[in-house]
C-alpha cells in the first residue's frame, strides 16, 4: 500500500491559512475597536457650546447639563447667555451646539416658525410649564385679566415684565391689545422682575408681573395666576432640548446624553431655590448632580460610566 506523503503538508497549509484568517480577523477587530476609541476621544475633546436664556429655570438646567457633560468626560463645555431670538438663531446657524431652554409649542412659537426648519428637536426635558400674569394672593380684588382695567390705579397702570425678547413678553403685548388693557408693559429682566415683586410684597402693595412655572417665587411667596378667559397664554408648554443640525453625526455620544436628559419640576426647583438663596449657579448644579447619581448616570449612559 502506497502512503500519501502529501497529506500532512496539505493539512499544514490549510491550518496556516486558517490561522492567518483568524489572526487577520482579530487584527481587524482590534483596528475597528481602536478606531472607535480614537473617535470617542476626539469627540470628548471637541469644544461644546450651549446657549441659554437668563430665566431662572434655564440657568438651572444649563448649569446642570454642563456639569453632566463634564462628568461624562467632555473637556471644554461653555455656556453662553443670550436673548431668545439670538438663541434660536445661534442654534440654527451652528453657533451653539444645543440648548435646553426652548419653551414650545407656544411661548416661543414665533422663533420656531422662523428657525425650526434648521434646528433638530431632540426631546422634551421638562413637561407642564405654565406662563401668565401673576399677582400676590392678598390682591383679592383681581383674579382675572379682565379685572385689571377696573384696578388700573392700584397697579399704576404697569405690568412688570422681563427681557423684551422673551416669548412671554410678546404674548403679553398681544394680551394687552386683546383685552384692551390701558397698561404699559415694563421691560426688565428676570432678576429685575422678581426684585420688583419682592419690594411690593415686602410692603404688601399690589403688583402684577409676567411669570412662569416652575419658578422659585411660587415656593417663596403666595402668588396666583390671573385667569385668562380668552386663552392667550394657552395650555401649558414643555421645555425642549434643541440641537444644531449635524450634531448627532458629529458628536453621537453627546447627542445620546441629550436624548436621555429629562427631569421633573421637583428636580429643577431644588436647583432654582439654592440659586435664589445665594448659591452660585455652578455650585447649586454641582450639589444636585452629586445628590442624584442614579439619574445622572442614566443620562450619561452605560458606555461612558466608570
UniProtKB/TrEMBL annotation:
Protein source organism: Methanosarcina mazei S-6
Protein name according to UniProt: Glycine betaine ABC transport system, glycine betaine-binding protein OpuAC
Keywords noted in UniProt: Cell membrane, Membrane, Transport
A GO BP annotation: choline transport
Main location: membrane
Keyword Cell membrane listed: yes
Localization per record: Cell membrane
A Gene Ontology cellular-component term: ATP-binding cassette (ABC) transporter complex
Cross-referenced InterPro entries: ABC_Gly_betaine_transp_sub-bd (IPR007210)
A GO molecular-function descriptor: amine transmembrane transporter activity
Organism placement in taxonomy: Archaea, Methanobacteriati, Methanobacteriota, Stenosarchaea group, Methanomicrobia
Superkingdom as given in the UniProt entry: Archaea
ABC-type glycine betaine transport system substrate-binding domain location: 47-291
Xref: PANTHER family: GLYCINE BETAINE/PROLINE BETAINE TRANSPORT SYSTEM PERMEASE PROTEIN PROW (PTHR47737), GLYCINE BETAINE_PROLINE BETAINE TRANSPORT SYSTEM PERMEASE PROTEIN PROW (PTHR47737:SF1)
Keyword Cell membrane: yes
